[in-house]
Specification:
Blueprint lengths: L1 E5 L3 H13 L3 E5 L2 H11 L3 E5 L7 H10 L8 E5 L6 H7 L4 E4 L4 H12 L6
Parallel strand pairs: 1-2, 1-3, 3-4, 4-5
């Protein structure tokens, strides 16, 4: 199952991509918002994990752009952000994200969120 991870911090994308691959996901990484937008259009992933603070184009803009395009509007997006302030979850949902996950990443919880979106029963 194809998963797109858009994250600019190498330590985090390396950690997440390796762990997700061990769970059977095919992971593609993009390291900035523009690249994430292009890869989402190209791959049409089952789920997109989107950091909201990215270079070139922020995650909020990426999410709104994808949701405004009928060709990519159905891609589920889980927002990843260190900004776990009151209202940020709603802001992510308003931008078109399907779910929200605050950093630091709780991998077991993130897997539960991914599984809920894709409807699988993979074990954490």
């Amino acid at each position: 199952m194809q998963l797109l991870l858009v994250e600019d911090h190498e330590e985090l994308w390396d950690f997440l991509s390796r762990r997700l691959q061990r769970r059977g996901y095919e992971v593609t990484v993009a390291t900035d918002g523009q690249q994430g937008l292009e890869k989402a259009r190209e791959l049409k992933p089952a789920v997109m994990l989107l950091d909201m603070n990215l270079p070139l184009m922020d995650g909020w803009t990426v999410a709104r752009t994808l949701k405004a395009d009928p060709a990519t509007a159905a891609i589920p997006i889980i927002a990843l952000t260190a900004h776990a302030m009151s209202g940020d979850r709603q802001k992510a949902l308003d931008a078109g994200c399907s779910d929200y996950h605050p950093k630091p990443v709780d991998f077991a919880q993130l897997l539960t969120q991914i599984d809920a979106i894709v409807g699988t029963s993979k074990q954490a």
